[in-house]
Amino acid sequence: SYSRNLHTTTNILLLSLAVSDFLVGLLLMPGEIFRSTACWFLGDIICSLYCYLVCQIVSGSIGSIILISFDRYVAIFHPLHYATRITLGRVRGCVVLCWLGAAFYSIFYMREVLTEPGKSKSCFGECTFVISYVTGTVDLILNFIFPVSTIILMYVRIFVVAVSQARAMRSHITAITRHRSVNVATKRSELKAARTLGVLIFVYLICYCPYYSFSLIEINVTSTAYASFLIFLFYFNSCLNPVIYALFYPWFRKAIKLIVTLQILQPDS
Question: In terms of pTM, does the model score above 0.85?
Answer without folding.
Answer: no
